[in-house]
Write a sequence for this structure.
């Protein structure tokens, strides 16, 4: 069985939904499982709903109506007015508004997952009905019934035994299915999410459970590029890379492949293809065991909105193993992701990501024992397979705050 994952850009409007049908006709869809993300920027729009729920209740209905209007506009371009899809969509919004009206939990992360998960549900309902309309028969399934997780809302951990059992018992490998990326459920049946961009990870979970032939991620770029075209004018397509290299790129923050996606695929040696939904017949990028980087060139990764934190002891004593252990324990407690570490005898510097906005609480804790200085809104540049020219390319018009180098990788924290 093949697993195809279509991201938000591939279903962002009616024309792109139609294009999914064209892609399937072009490359074939027998024995396939389709996984889709929320349409366009729906996740962002639903995050506004979450914020309004907690902070601006007078704007709540308006923010929900904007999400509904966006999806209805797509329906109107795809379906006749009496089609069953309108009722199916209405049922999803009734479920969402019922949750908003009756929820009692003050837990932001829990509420976030219950609301944001509707993006994928709406997207796949529309895609399911459109493909049926086009004569491409398929079965819609709710991923929350199959991907079982713990209670870590917004970044849930998969319960692999339960998940694999549910998937293998439900999926007939000779049928075409459509399901959601990004979402699962806990043991109480409440929605959980796998972290932003987690739809790629969903594809890997299903592929692992099904012993799939391959996974293809369909994107609006020709494949895995050696740099993000949003930040670099010149980019090159990587025709092939190994699992190990792809894991390294993902670990450092490459946005094309989700960091958790690759390990399940590598464990069962399931090849991953990253291809263009605009030109589906092009080769794209293949990720497989032992594949040498082709072409062998430097690869650039950028992480924006980072924090550079420097700690020194108040009594000028050394920062030793016990201090570092205590510091990392605090990072774990406050869900602060550490990307770079640099240590000397009397200071300790880290470049971190504070996606849950806990730094101010952490800083107050650290202030009790250390002198704390920090730079906000810095950028972390990572160069895999660096050379002098690639480093010079990054340094232009930026202030270097921290630099770290090993055999294959250079990392620089910059103020732009």
């Amino acid at each position: 069985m093949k697993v195809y994952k279509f991201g938000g850009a591939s279903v962002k409007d009616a024309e792109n939904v139609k294009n999914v049908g064209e892609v399937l006709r072009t490359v074939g869809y027998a024995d396939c499982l389709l996984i889709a993300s929320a349409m366009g920027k729906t996740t962002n729009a639903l995050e506004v709903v979450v914020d309004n729920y907690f902070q601006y209740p007078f704007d709540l209905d308006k923010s929900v109506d904007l999400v509904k209007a966006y999806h209805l506009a797509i329906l109107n371009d795809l379906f006749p007015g009496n089609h069953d899809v309108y009722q199916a969509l209405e049922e999803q919004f009734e479920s969402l508004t019922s949750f908003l009206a009756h929820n009692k939990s003050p837990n932001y992360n829990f509420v976030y997952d219950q609301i944001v998960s509707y993006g994928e549900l709406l997207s796949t309902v529309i895609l399911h009905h459109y493909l049926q309309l086009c004569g491409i028969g398929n079965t819609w399934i709710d991923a929350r019934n199959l991907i079982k997780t713990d209670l870590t809302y917004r970044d849930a951990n998969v319960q692999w035994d339960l998940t694999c059992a549910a998937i293998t018992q439900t999926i007939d490998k000779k049928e075409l299915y459509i399901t959601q990326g990004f979402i699962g459920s806990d043991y109480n049946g409440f929605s959980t999410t796998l972290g932003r961009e987690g739809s790629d990870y969903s594809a890997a979970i299903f592929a692992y459970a099904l012993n799939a032939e391959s996974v293809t991620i369909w994107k609006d770029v020709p494949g895995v590029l050696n740099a993000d075209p949003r930040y670099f004018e010149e980019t090159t397509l990587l025709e092939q890379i190994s699992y190990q290299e792809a894991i390294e790129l993902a670990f450092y923050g490459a946005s094309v492949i989700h960091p958790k996606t690759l390990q399940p695929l590598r464990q069962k040696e399931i090849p991953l293809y990253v291809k263009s939904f605009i030109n589906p017949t092009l080769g794209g990028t293949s990720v497989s065991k032992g594949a040498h980087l082709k072409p062998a060139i430097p690869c650039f990764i950028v992480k924006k909105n980072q924090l550079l934190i420097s700690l020194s002891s108040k009594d000028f004593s050394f920062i030793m193993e016990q201090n570092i252990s205590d510091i990392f324990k605090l990072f774990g407690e406050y869900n602060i992701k550490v990307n770079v570490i640099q240590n000397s005898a009397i200071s300790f510097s880290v470049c971190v990501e504070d996606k849950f906005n806990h730094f101010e609480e952490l800083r107050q804790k650290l202030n009790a024992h250390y002198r704390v200085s920090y730079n906000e809104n810095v950028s972390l540049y990572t160069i895999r397979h660096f050379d002098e020219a690639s480093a010079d390319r990054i340094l232009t018009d930026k202030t270097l705050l921290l630099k770290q180098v090993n055999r294959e990788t250079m990392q620089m924290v910059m103020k732009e």
User: Anything to note?
Assistant: Residues 117 and 183 are 6 Å apart (CA to CA). Residues 60-78 form the longest helix (19 residues). The radius of gyration is 23 Å. The mean pLDDT is 95.
